[in-house]
Amino acid sequence: MRIEIDDLTRPAIHALLNEHLAHMNQLSPPEQVFALDLSKLQSPDITFLTVWDDELLLGCGALKALGARHGEIKSMRTPASLRGRGAGRAVLHQIIEIARQRGYDLLSLETGTHPEFSPAHRLYKSAGFQESGPFANYKEDPHSMFMELRLPEKAV
């Protein structure tokens, strides 16, 4: 398994992002779908990561800069047929490491409340995330769960 910072040009990534958007639109009302499409993920404030097993795309995730010391996790996705291989956990840990290297104090995320999001909730909690309130431009809503991870300063 290898993790890459990705330029979002490969067709496999486009297919996974399309799967992600379609699934999010099935689970949440349209105004509560905060998943980013390809063009929004190509923003300079977003670092997009992919996880591969040789040429097989196992998953993706992104880190969006919200400020000098705050980041947001976006677009965490593993293809439905490839879940259970550890790709989600691997990309999450890589995102957390990048955030630490950048000197972030806080990582936040928004995820859904539909029961199908339960595996994601467990993954985030296992990495130390705790439920929190809305951040950035998000608003309190029954379809959204907000989580955060405080990143302690590295010892010198």
TrEMBL record:
Domain of life: Bacteria
UniProt-recorded name of the protein: GNAT family N-acetyltransferase
Domain (N-acetyltransferase) ranges: 3-152
Keyword Lipid metabolism (UniProt): no
PANTHER family: AMINOALKYLPHOSPHONATE N-ACETYLTRANSFERASE-RELATED-RELATED, BLL8307 PROTEIN
PROSITE patterns linked: GNAT
Source organism phylogeny: Bacteria, Pseudomonadati, Pseudomonadota, Betaproteobacteria, Burkholderiales
UniProt organism field: Roseateles oligotrophus
Record flagged with keyword Nuclease: no
Keywords: Acyltransferase, Transferase
